[in-house]
């Protein structure tokens, strides 16, 4: 089995940088064979290009706002928009962002191209501030990083990505 852990986020926007922080932590220790960690940043088109090479499992890490306490970690199956069901005008609107800065957009394009893995999960961290133009995570979000790393490793084991 192979897996991609795609870590989204903008390190210049406070807690939005949680994905890159998780990527750094994951890359600091050995990973199972067949696992690639991508620090996607705000360039989801890179993820789509990687998915075109094929993978069995996709884990997306990103900041979320679900109204939960700051630092909460959630795992969800994403509801991916199928562009083939949209009118031509709506498709143009949805696909206009060529950077695919959000996971939603990148996953939508991957589904449209037929390269979205059947096992795709989002590991979200409830953040407090993703708009402030500053570097560094809030205390609550920083404390969530090792929890996300453990959850990623647990999910990789659950979906039979063998340890190295």
Describe the fold and architecture.
This protein has helices at residues 18-27, 44-51, 88-94, 103-113, 139-158; strands spanning 3-8, 35-41, 57-64, 73-76, 119-126. The model has no long low-confidence stretch (mean pLDDT 91). It has 5 helices and 5 strands. By secondary structure, the chain is α/β, with parallel strands linked by helices. The protein has a single domain, classed as Rossmann fold, CATH 3.40.50. Helix 1 (18-27) links the parallel strand 1 (3-8) and strand 2 (35-41). It has a 5-stranded mixed sheet with strand order 2-1-3-5-4, with helices on both faces.
Explain briefly what this protein structure is.
With 164 residues, this protein is α/β, with parallel strands linked by helices.
Notable characteristics:
globular; alpha/beta; Rossmann fold; single chain; 164 residues; 5 helices
Shape: globular
Low-pLDDT ranges: none
Name the CATH superfamily classification: HybD-like
| Number of beta strands | 5
Provide the helix percentage: 25-40%
Biggest sheet character: 5 strands, mixed
Strand content: 15-25%
Annotate the secondary structure layout:
Layout: E1 3-8, H1 18-27, E2 35-41, H2 44-51, E3 57-64, E4 73-76, H3 88-94, H4 103-113, E5 119-126, H5 139-158
Parallel strand pairs: 1-2, 1-3, 3-5
Antiparallel strand pairs: 4-5
